[in-house]
Amino acid sequence: MPLLKCEHVSKRFGGMVAVDDVSFEIMSGELMAIVGPNGAGKTTMFNLINGVFLPDEGHIWFAGVDVTRFPSYKRAHLGMGRTFQIPRPFASATVQENIAIGAMFGAAGGELNVEEAMEVADEYIDLIGLKAHRNKPAGGLTPIEKKLVEIARALAMKPRLLLMDEAMAGMNPKDIDQMVTFIRHIRDVEGIAVVAMVEHIMRAVAGLAERVMVMHQGAKLVDEPTREALNDPRVIEVYLGRQAEEFNAKG
Ligand SMILES: Nc1ncnc2c1ncn2[C@@H]1O[C@H](COP(=O)(O)OP(=O)(O)OP(=O)(O)O)[C@@H](O)[C@H]1O
Ligand SMILES: [Mg+2]
After folding, report:
1. CB atoms closer than 10 angstroms to residue 140
2. Which ligand lies nearest the alpha carbon of 35?
3. Relative to the CA of 40, which ligand 1 atom is closest?
4. What residue ranges do the domains of the chain occupy?
5. Residue 246: band (very low, low, confident or very high) from pLDDT cuts 50, 70, 90
6. What is the CATH number of domain 1-79+160-251?
7. Whose CA is nearest to atom 29 of ligand 1?
């Protein structure tokens, strides 16, 4: 059974079709990237999966439950976590407190007391390597550290699926490689499926994803293993252009 299944999902804004009859599935533990040119419908698709928007047509199942009309918090309780493009930690709360908030509102929602949530937070502080910052206000961290705290907060919710919005936007190649390694590590250790929206960074797509869905004008253009997707003439034409040819030529 797929972990997530979207069937003929559409979303319109006024007369404009932002997501057009998209169907796809994600299995447990899979690493998938959603890419596409500006305005292709990636963020809207993400918001439909997550429950920020409800679709005009189609159905979404998560962990065997029809969540099509569920609000976001109910999807979170079923094990759907997400990070945001721009991390917004509670600036005056410590790193540990910020992550504990995830533990308190996630899959174990309402069952952990503050002390237990703080213990869960400590596990994830170790995982992201920010032990030295445990008791510092999150507002003082660097952007990449804030991103790591945000990921740790999402992981502390014990998700089965982690949705990462623009996971590596604005990062330099070294940070991208580090983040790719880290995301693959959490998949391996925690068995979590990850859907990452990755910007125009071939290095990140190729390093991270096992499968790529390319969107174009609201529709699904291809949904293929990464190598095939990056070599697909349709993808090269509408999206990747020379970037992909150069990347593929290099190996
Ligand atoms: N809340 C909204 N109200 C009206 N139109 C919207 C809204 N959100 C998105 N759109 C439109 O839907 C289309 C798809 O937008 P979306 O943000 O999903 O694309 P995207 O693939 O994420 O693009 P980008 O790479 O620029 O982030 C665009 O034409 C956009 O203008
Ligand atoms: Mg977007």
Report:
1. 12
2. 1
3. 21
4. 1-79+160-251, 86-158
5. low
6. 3.40.50.300
7. 39
